[in-house]
């Protein structure tokens, strides 16, 4: 019925639906203003080599400061996609991330950056070209950029996504499967896509030591990754016993609040500066 009425009218189906629609419309126009008024920020969460605690990379995570309130990305990424704002926002995040990390690398810190992309961002016209342009403009070498996608991306419209991700891979960009183990993709995609990194979903890490099945599954994913020659990153490390178990399993990389929280570029910079001064090995940043 609402469709027949058309013309921008919002038909009330049920009270909860009305609230949903209004909320989404409000969020959509707020997002537009937010982009214009530069209310977005990028934070960086360190990823470490679990054996040495050396920071090998950072993950760029978008933040929306709506007044003094930080809106979680999971709440605004969907609406941003629906209102067509995800492409300009994603472009901005990518450029910010490349720019900062290119600067750190010029200070002789060998660090990489991963940036998240949704299925729709990848499907948008000119996606491959926009990534290439961001690298070109910021001077970040393609090898220092990792594109993170969820498994679902490889299921929905797999053909085109795989083609575009392969094109990026041909440029030298690395590819990570995010939230590994939670999607509905068949493992066969690992044989069809030039994947470099798998990121173990926090739901596995959360059960380490406490849940036998989750511990066994984590161990299996670590071994699978290693057998396939992939870099495995464990996400959501919060407790010391999780870190210990992952080290014992030989998981190469880790990320989580226990290691370091996402932080503003300035805080990463002071971390690097203190570290680079204190250490004799150039380009090495180690967390406690
Ligand atoms: P993700 O890519 O899996 O990112 C990891 C999320 O886990 C981040 O949440 C991070 O802050 C959080 N995290 C890290 N360590 C821990 C921990 O030890 N415990 C817990 N509980 N959480 C931890 P965040 O920043 O809220 O982002 C949520 C999701 O939103 C991301 O999940 C990603 O899918 C998406 N996202 C964030 N930034 C962007 C972006 O710039 N573009 C796109 N397309 N998606 C983004
Ligand atoms: Mg991610
Ligand atoms: Mg993840
Ligand atoms: Mg996630």
UniProtKB/TrEMBL annotation:
Domain of life: Bacteria
Annotated signal peptide: none
Domain EAL per the UniProt entry, residue ranges: 24-276
Name of the featured protein: EAL domain-containing protein
Taxonomic source organism: Actinomadura miaoliensis
